[in-house]
Write a structure and sequence with these properties.
Length: 93
Amino acid sequence: MEILVAALFGTLFMFGITYVLSQLFIKKFIKYIPALLLIVIGSYLLITARLLGSGGFDNLIMGIWAVMLYYGAIIGIISSVAIDFIRRKKKIS
């Protein structure tokens, strides 16, 4: 149950960041930056766990963090595309 609540808060947090960035800046690509940063950090953790791991639980923890960051990145990309789609519909109408 705690994992579901953490995933829900992570989703709301990522959507909130994306929405705030889309309201503050006119350029479209700026709202994709948090998702790209999460992908880069997740990739770093995954590579570090694979290549430099000590064989203990450190590798497992880094892998879990990488998966959670990828989840946040996917939510960020989906919310950015949804915001673009809604804005385009409003401009057409």
